[in-house]
Amino acid sequence: MVQTYSVPPKHGQFPHSPNASSQAFSIARRFGKLPPIHGFETFCSRRAALDIQTLVAPLQAPLFIDEDIVKAQLRYLPLLALAIAACSPPPAGNDGGDGATDSTPADTRTDSRTDTGTTTDTGVDPDTGVVTDSGVDPDTGVVTDSGVDPDTGVVTDSGIDSGVVVDSGIDTGVDTGVDTGVDTGVDTGVDTGVDSGVPMCPAMTGTLTLPMGMVTGTLPMTPNAINNVSCTTNTFQTGEHVYALNVATRTGVVLSTANAATTTDTSLVIRRTCNDIGTEIACDDDGANDGTKSYVRAVLEPGMYSVIVDGFRTAGPYQLDVSSFTPAANATCASATALTAAMATMGTTANGGSTNSPCRTSTGTINGGQVYYSFAIPANSRVNFAVTATGMQNVRAYLTDSCTATTCAGSNTTSTMGTAVNLGASNSTAAPRTVILAISSTSLTTAGDFSITPTVTALAANAACAAPTALTAGAAAVNGNTDTGGSPVSSCTADATELFYTATIPANSRGTFTLTHTGTQSARVRVLDNCAPASCPTSTTSSTTGVAIPVDNTTASARTVILAVASNSTSTASTFGIAHTSNTMFAANAACSAPIVVAPGASAMIDTMAAAGTRPIVCNTADGDVLYYSVTIPARSSIPVTLTRGGTQDARMRVLDSCTATSCAANVATTSATGVTASIDNTTAAARTVLIAVGSTSTSTPATATLAVGTATPIVTYTESMTPAMCDDLTMASPAAVVLGATGDDATTARLALPFNVSFFGAVSNEFSASTNGFAQIWAMGSTGTPSSTFTNAVIPSTAAPNNLLAVFWDDLEVTASANIRTATFGGMPNRRFVIEWNNVLNRNATGSTMRFQAKLFEGTNVVEYHYCALSDAASPVLTGNSATIGIENAAGSNGTQHSNNTAMSITLANAIRYTPM
Fold first, then answer.
1. d(CA 605, CA 541)
2. DSSP per position, 736-776
């Protein structure tokens, strides 16, 4: 028989540290060694003033007569004592959840867990159920029990609050009971403790001492595991030195390697945790104005910091100078001083903080101490800050939207003491807008004194893009002042302020606008299709006489545009007038997609007035707008197109293969009343249609012109084939060979008569010329032109000279004293052949090498052949074409057949190249 007992209820304090108590209680309860008191909280609430004697008393009662039961009661006595101890508050001075060795304030940690109900004990001892503490501070409230009993209740804290509790107890008993109790308690405490230990960091080198100090070191070449610095894109390749810096009160610090003892390229970093770039407070690379040494100025709140000295590529010695100052109240952006409209505020950068503005990172040269001001711009208003240097040291002002902005709304630097510079910002919304003004000295060592006076003005009604002023075609100009403008559209942040206007352009029309500035400061206008353009459109700058801004609408629907007008200066406002002067209907062929067709043999009169359309995107894009025409050339035909101007203004003609062409097939402009002609060839077996864009060569003066399209003529092309080489012996010619007068380097003959007429690319030709550089030219009857002697070979075909070309071996050759160019005629009518020979010529690209080769023209068939007779080195890359062009080309340079260009082994002594006309 077992006699039960009860303990009279006591009103006790709920345990301060429930984790250990709950653990002990749980152990005792699982092993069946507690009285039937339900719930840990109930137990602890009743244990006040409860001592071991009280618990033992029932054991001494005569009702406990069973010996086995008595032994069992004695066995759980130590666990009852442990449970009582666990209900006790922690010793004074301890961390509320982590033991007695952490010096930080007591944790008031929150355990938000709710026991969902029944916990089943496996009955196996030792108990393996482990509850894991994450080790993260604030402590999650989870305690790890090793499951070993007895539990010693020892908690180990290393000084760095890891949140981990170590239980080393050993439990030798076996528990077969099942816990059916439900724990509904919720821990609502909050862990606000802050560890004061130095963050874990590799390679901790030493400690910096304030208010002043200096340390020296030599950076090693072996890199550490610290993350790279944020203020440069360079990869720092040396090891880092890391110093602990303990700041007791809010303090300004200056760190610098700008001294003679520093001979390596350094960067400086301040972080809360040295190997966590996300905790970076300040960073500088080469900001001490010499390209290798660094300077950091920052305001630090109380706490532990890591100062990192890093090196770029080359290790070496450095000296780190440390000093401190008492920061001004507005030395950080978060503590900016509020400014009042129309009131002058005096200030100094002497005790300023960060060396960089909130919208600018260190990129080399940096400023001195910086102080911050804020101003709330009223709704629909603009503020202008007049910043004046009141001492000899200049200051720089930065304007930004917030402390976290990455771009500046504007900046300006004073130049003379007493002379103000201006910065402004607009608020075109219905609520106040707060901006930040940062003032820094332009010197790292000398503070700047200054004054700031904010002036507020009301914005114009059209200061917002959403409320533009409407412009009417033909109406008088509307006047504006950019000083009353609002914020620019998001893609045009370089503009200080903008005023907005709107206009509607009818279908297939051009709207023309005129912008004139009425003061000394010019304005600029951007044409927008909406208030949120993806990119900032190109602007047009005003003049005192007015500048025209054409806006095209080539669609079949009306187009509404927005014109944003801003000053051409970010600091000086502009007064201006803007007018919608006219809408003009486009000509039918103003669009490339709707050209006027001009048939061969016809002509068109052209008036490139305002009815012209947008010029092509290629070939002289600075010219005026154009009208479009199309011409179709039959297969294997050529058509001449002539452009003649009608007045004094020159016109231009561009030939395009399509509206999206990236190059021009022809591009000529008039220079007199004579006109210019472009031959458009079609060497294919299908018809070819081209576009001809005609416009003025001036963007402001229109031109009149006539476009005349000639009749199509068949075009001759040459096919290439190979034939066995059969060089003629010119010493056996009858009549004897004629030696031409071209000698030396880069020389040519005059135009000389052929012994018979040949058809060359379809043109009857009766003259030739020969150059020392391995080519001949065939001249048509009545043609004009001068023989070429250029040594720089090029691809075929090409409109560049030389044209009407027989490129037998076009290279840099020389006719020396032992060489010549000679000609001879073989055979009788009507089967004669005319031979031009380059005899023993020197190739200047291969020292001492010589060549002999021939061009042959055949009477009647108009076939052309190239024969290669002798090479001083038949395996030489140079002598076989490595730097030569070989082929045939017409007079316009528009048609030709190329055998090779700069290709070694293009010729052999065994084979000749034959060109047969088709």
1. 34
2. PPEE-S--EES-B---EEEEEEEEETTEEEEEEEEBTTSEE
CA atoms of 538 and 525, how far apart (whole Å): 9
- Neighbour tally for 361: CB within 10 Å: 14
User: Cis link prior to 9 (omega < 30° from 0)?
Assistant: no
Q: How long is the chain?
A: 918
pLDDT of residue 292: 81
Give the whole-angstrom CA distance, residue 770 versus residue 760: 16
10 Å CB burial of residue 17 (0-12, 13-18, 19+) is buried
- Closest CA relative to residue 667, chosen from 630, 639, 693, 637: 693
**Residue that the structure tokens 């004139």 belong to:** 516
Half-sphere exposure of 365 (CA within 13 A, CB side): 4
pLDDT at 5: 38
Residues near 682 by beta carbon (within 8 Å), at least 6 away in sequence: 633, 634, 635, 636, 637, 638, 688, 715
Distances (CA, A) of 157 to 97, 103, 148, 166, 171: 10, 10, 20, 9, 23
In this prediction, residue 837 carries a pLDDT of 98
> Which residues, listed in sequence order, are joined to residue 1 by a DSSP beta bridge?
none
First to last CA, the chain: 129
The fraction of the chain above a pLDDT of 70, given in percent, is 75
Alpha carbon dihedral 764, 769, 771, 775, in 10-degree steps, equals: 20
Q: Determine the pLDDT at residue 195.
A: 43
Residue 132 has what pLDDT? Answer: 44
> Is 666 within 8 Å of 654 (Cβ atoms)?
yes
DSSP state letters, 508-526: TEEEEEEEEESSSS-EEEE
| Closest to 526 measured CA to CA, from 582, 473, 564 | 564
Q: Residue 228, Cα to own-chain centre: how many angstroms?
A: 21
pLDDT score, position 357: 63
The two three-digit tokens of residue 52, written as one number: 């071991």
How far apart, in whole angstroms, are the C-alpha atoms of residue 425 and residue 456?
10
- From residue 177, how far is each of 88, 125, 199, 257, 610 by CA, in Å? 27, 11, 46, 70, 101
Give the residue ranges of the chain where pLDDT is below 70: 1-203, 224-225, 227-228, 233-237, 289-290, 356-366, 609-610
In the chain, count H helices and then E strands.
5, 52
pLDDT of residue 608: 76
- pLDDT given for residue 405 in this prediction: 84
Find the angle CA(5)-CA(8)-CA(14) to the nearest 5 degrees: 120
Q: Helix 77-87 crosses helix 67-75 at what angle (to 10 degrees)? A: 30
Provide the CA 673 distance to its chain's centre, in angstroms.
51
Q: How many CB atoms lie within 10 A of CB 718?
A: 21
Task: Read off the DSSP letter of residue 557.
Answer: S
Q: Residue 109 — φ and ψ, nearest 5°?
A: -65, 155
Can you give the pTM of this predicted structure?
0.48
List Cβ neighbours of 242 (8 Å cut-off, separation of 6 or more): 201, 202, 203, 204, 205, 226, 274, 306, 307, 308, 309
The pair of three-digit structure tokens given for residue 578, joined into one six-digit string: 């803007």
Nearest by Cα to 86 from 17, 13, 36? 17
pLDDT at position 868 is: 98
Q: Which helix (H) or strand (E) holds 350?
A: none
pLDDT value of residue 123 = 45
Q: Looking at residue 69, what is its pLDDT?
A: 46
Amino acid found at 509: S
User: In a 3-state reduction of DSSP, which class is residue 57?
Assistant: helix
Whole-number Cα distances in Å, 721 to 741, 894, 915: 32, 21, 7
Kindly give the interhelix angle for 67-75 and 52-60, rounded to the nearest 10 degrees.
170
Plot region of 72 (φ>0 → left; ψ -120 to 50 → alpha; else → beta): alpha
Element (H, E) at 836: strand 833-843
d(CA 108, CA 5): 37
